[in-house]
Structures
1.
Amino acid sequence: MTLFHKIHKCLLCVRTSRQIPVASIYGGQQDSQSKPYTPRRAVMYVPGNDQKKIQKVTSLDLDCAVLDCEDGVAANKKEEARSTIRQALDQVNFGYTECIVRVNSVTSGLMEKDLTEVLKAERMPHALMLPKVERPEDIDMFTKRLKEALQGRPLSTRPFLITYVESALGLMNLRDIFKKTIDLQLKEQLYVLDGVVFGSDDFCADIGATRTSDAKELLYARQKIVTCAKAFKLQAIDMVHIDLKDLEGIEKQSLEGARMGFTGKQVIHPSHIPIVQRAFSPTADQVKWATELVEAFSKHTDSGKGAFSFQGKMIDMPSVLQAKNILQLSTNVSSRTS
């Protein structure tokens, strides 16, 4: 089967509203586990030791809630956070909101306890987030500790893994980090790499930059993260907008991130959720354009002819794939709220 026909077959699946494994769209899979696209437009952190805030998540129209063991938890509350998260995994109904646990970094000396306690829960988190990844060796250590924490526990579905870039070294090593993670993913069968998060504040501190409203000082890092992520078919989650009251600013920054290729954005307050999720969602006009293009492509393929024009423009495969991405995101977002 040619690449052209494989893409055509996948597009027909979109037209019938099936959820399609992302890797199969691009002509290859990282491993045997099907990898449906999970929308993570707004990714909100919730302190793991705050039971009330965790419960409040269930009332929010939120794609992704991160139960935090790391920066959002004081040093003397770490043990409480682990225990509270473990209980929440089993007792709280998060609905369509994805429940993720962020553990502490490999170098913190706390990650092992996080994994051991949190993974005592009967219900596994949908994904694990690993902050401050700087070297491939960090992934090797995380995988070993995760394997120990899961010892004797059968996995019907492996959790997703999402890593962080928070330093110059982590940015420079990102490609090698992804390669190492996928190698260990295939070997150990413990997780499925699904995305990367840009920890902008730590990154600025590491390189000695000053945060500005237009974030020009972070342009190179953001572009490199998106490029590396997309090369490995991963989601890319953009930086936090730290001014809680600047709703106009977060909308502007969210739209900018979406145009750059980020798939979502970190948020730290519920008021930011609808703004961010709207910015990272296809507009009605985009969905209409994509639907008509896919239909035109299907008809043209059936005719057996070569290149064709659509709305006055010549259509190539990147345009078709862009239309597919829009429809896939629209379908998956709709399915989570219906």
2.
Amino acid sequence: MWLYLVALLALYLLRRWHRERQTVGNLPDKHVFITGCDSGFGHLLAKQLDGRGLRVLAACLTEQGAERLREATSGRLQTVILDVTRSDSIAAATAWVKGQVGDRGLWGLVNNAGISVPTAPNEWLSKADFVKMLDVNLVGLIEVTLSLLPLVRRARGRVVNVSSVMGRLSFFGGGYCPSKYGVEAFSDSLRREMLPFGVKVCMIEPGYFRTAITDPSILTENFKGLWEQLPQETKAAYGEQYLETFIKATYDMQKSCSPNLSLVTQAMEHALTAQHPRTRYSCGWDAKLLYLPLSYLPTTFTDLVLTWSYPKPAQKA
């Protein structure tokens, strides 16, 4: 009995390996639009796809970011300035993409742009803090997708949305985790709607990597700024030691973040170039061995594991 099960598993893995090695053809004729290319995953992916010969359309928030990318790539790569929180900026970028791709349509859309601040315990935040995060990480992603979807549909191409393991497991307060849960939900519904059109929708779920999202100096400045604005009653409830422990944990977390960003960009590239891409890509050993398994375990156990290292408030019960 066990021998048959092992044989079936081996056949399944062999078939999966074979399917995932098959790539689409005519890569030099395919256009891919990537948001958030100033740094991090987007910057590296743009260079990586340019090296593969694809026609990369890279959206950057700043002209400085666009210039750095152009200096590191071939003349095929084109850049555009895009603020995903502004509808007029998205409309202008969409018109520019239409002019670039023509009747061929857009083969790939990679929604990579994202921010990680303001982040803090929920009680430290305001509605505006949540809205700022959701505008970039979720609403902006949705508007960019809806604007470019007719071009992707024309090419029977791919939509690749960057989520996070924090879209499967809410580890900390603020708008980051809700925004990533939203990306998961939007991607799931879009995938099912696009199936009849031949469009594939994939999600990238990275663990912790060394990017601006996990930069401890940015996060620490964010924590301190929010702390200074808190009412005295709230400060007394949490205590200065809570803030200091929170900041220390941020620097400790950075030490465990993987510096190998290519683990994520290789997954993105596979989602764009494989004939049979995966629906979800878990990137990083922390995602595969810790966060995703935890997301399937009983809530009580998960809460115990995740709160083990939480700072303790001054006025705890």
